[in-house]
Amino acid sequence: RCSSALATLEHLRLALRTTDYLHSAPACVTIDFYLAHLLQQQKYDQAALDRYNILQQRLDNPTQAQRNDPGVRGLLDSPNSIWLQIGQLSEKRGRLADALAAYRHVIANDPSIFAVQAEAIRLQARLGDHPGSLSAAVELSDRFGNSATALTFLHDIYLSFGSPSQVADALRKLHKANPDDAAIVAALVDRLDTQGETDEARKLLETAA
């Protein structure tokens, strides 16, 4: 299996020298895609990342022949597939700013993917923008209806990059904006109990009852 993959890899590398590839024919997009994917499978992360970046540059500026090609059109219609690979590989290689930029492309194309937005906020925090990331976590939770997953993420990001008291402050802010949201009330009560602020927790429960 390994020898087969290496043989395919060598075949694709030879394809980089063909006239079609050098002249940016539709085939060059297919070659870049399969070469990047195979390099990634074989754990050549930096080489795969370089090839995905080349591929994305082609997809950002396709020729008319490439637009008309069914295979290329499939990639053009699903721009997040390549940006996600670039983001994940960049993060794996420690290139956090590049990873964040890639994830932001994904978010711009499809703002409904919670996991990507959460990862972007984590990267924002790891890059040093703690206030911005904490504020973004509150906004993200609100946008996703303060679901259990969103509130757990909010809690985790504040504990990782803020302080325990800031978790309660963030939940108070969400509760003020969404006073009838039972999930927020439950999360805030739990946080207040953990911090020993039982009086506020009890009043909150009495008000919600």
Would you write up a description of this structure?
The protein is mainly α and 209 residues long. Helix content is 80%, strand content 0%. It has 14 helices and no strands. The radius of gyration is 23 Å and the shape is elongated. The mean pLDDT is 88.
SSE order, as H and E?
Answer: HHHHHHHHHHHHHH
Structural class: mainly alpha
**pLDDT averaged over residues:** 88
Please summarize the sheet with the most strands. Answer: none
Q: Beta-strand level of the residues, as a percent range?
A: under 5%
- How would you describe the oligomerization state of the chains in this entry? single chain
Number of strands: 0
Count of runs of 4 or more consecutive helical residues:
14
Low-confidence stretches: none
Based on CA atoms alone, the radius of gyration comes out at 23 Å
DSSP helix fraction? over 70%
Q: Terminal Cα separation, in Å?
A: 63 Å
The coarse overall form would be elongated
